[in-house]
Amino acid sequence: MFRYGWLTITAEDLAVWQQFPDASFTLVNLPSPPDAPEEFHLGAFEIPAHPSSPPIDEH
Fold it and tell me: Which pTM value belongs to this model?
């Protein structure tokens, strides 16, 4: 449970985060019934121009 509702994170969101750990995601509020907790998911993301750490070379 998120502080003020539910946050749904998909496998695709995790894949972006694993490849770009410094990415910033938008938080999107999904429609929900009036009495239900709010539900959110991660939307568009932004990758910083200068990541804080160099990419890992797997070779």
Answer: 0.63
